[in-house]
């Protein structure tokens, strides 16, 4: 068998050699048709998975806070999901939901549950006893204490889980493109098939940049919603 054929992507303007690791002409010519839309899709895919995972995890943690049997069961279930290899997990749902965005989101959301549930429950359980006693002294009911005291004070732990979950989803979403050609994984897989280094490097760098920017945004959001953590003694 001969060597794989190297395909040079065609666009209006100067062509780039496949072995060129970074051809700026190709990037500018194909930003609006390939890289830009793929980046937007990747952000969309990530947002859905993290938001849905956060809603499920916070609801489960609130329910599990006073029910240890549920906490242990959900933690074991989410840990089991987290240990399944990503590609196998995505392909497992293909017979049910097909090669679709739904298949991708089921897998990505499942990977967020352990991170978000564990951090949320830990945050609820580590609220200072003095804060709870002060709330009880003010006549607040257990439910009011849970939503007005424990949940707000658990925000730093919850946001830490969101940081890890978001970056994890961004990376796994590139693998999910093997199921449905969506997100930055699509140009990465296309570049692997055509042996075109510029498309591969550009998409990979965009994925890394998106993860870094997302981490900074979540940290900034945590800074805004938890002002008490910035108080200097």
UniProtKB/TrEMBL annotation:
Organism ancestry: Bacteria, Bacillati, Actinomycetota, Actinomycetes, Pseudonocardiales
Protein name: ABC transporter permease
Keywords for the protein's UniProt record, in alphabetical order: Membrane, Transmembrane, Transmembrane helix, Transport
Matches recorded under InterPro entries: ABC_transp_perm/SBD, MetI-like, MetI-like_sf
Residue ranges constituting the ABC transmembrane type-1 domain according to the UniProt record: 39-218
Localization in the cell: Cell membrane; Membrane
Pfam families: BPD_transp_1 (PF00528)
Main location: membrane
Bilayer topology annotation: Multi-pass membrane protein
Species whose genome carries this gene: Actinomycetospora endophytica
Coiled-coil regions listed: none
TM stretches of this protein: 43-65, 72-93, 99-117, 153-180, 200-225
Family, as annotated: Belongs to the binding-protein-dependent transport system permease family.
